Amino acid sequence: MNTITLLGSARGNGYTAALCEAIGFKTLNLNDYQIRPYDYRGDGRGDDFLGLIEELLRHDRILLASPLYWYSMSGPMKVFLDRLTDLLNHHKALGRQLRGKAAGVIASGGARVPPPCFEEPFRLTFDYLGMHYQGMSYLDTSKGLDGAMLAKVAASHPFKADYALATSGNWANATPA
Ligand SMILES: Cc1cc2nc3c(=O)[nH]c(=O)nc-3n(C[C@H](O)[C@H](O)[C@H](O)COP(=O)(O)O)c2cc1C
């Protein structure tokens, strides 16, 4: 199975980017793409959205990565999700190819745990698109970056092979010091 991560953060080298690196899949940064806000025309205005979708579609599993900004996903990630609407109206053949793919979320935030309203839009959107949502891993960055915690959160994502170990309660014995 090949997996791709799409990072949507205000900074490409911040905490969420560090989590993307720790989880270890190929990462695309939304800041490197010109994605215009949704505007109801959706008929190919020459930005990078369709090319990005085609790149994502070359993968079996799609992981969206976002920091918590005001209890929500980041602005760049919301713009990207809004643009998925184009796939329902103007580019249906592309949109249909998302069906059946596995999807996941990784996130970072200053809160100990994210509010439930953070994950719901992702889960519901994947569901609407016929994708199979596998879950979210969340990194609390309130005290900065902690390498061991970063590794543990990365490993706790269902897309990671060591997921079962990381969630079994025996991680303390297995994780590197
Ligand atoms: C604009 C903004 C809004 C934020 N809002 C929240 C929030 O509502 N809840 C929270 O727990 N952390 C919040 N934070 C903290 C970030 O989620 C946290 O520092 C995150 O790890 C930053 O990731 P980044 O380096 O990828 O931007 C906010 C940070 C910023 C810059």
UniProtKB/TrEMBL annotation:
One of its GO terms (molecular function) is oxidoreductase activity. InterPro entries: Flavoprotein-like_sf, FMN_Rdtase-like_dom, ISF_SsuE-like. It holds the Pfam family FMN_red. Keywords: Flavoprotein, FMN. It comes from the Bacteria. Residues 1-133 form the NADPH-dependent FMN reductase-like domain. This is Multimeric flavodoxin WrbA.
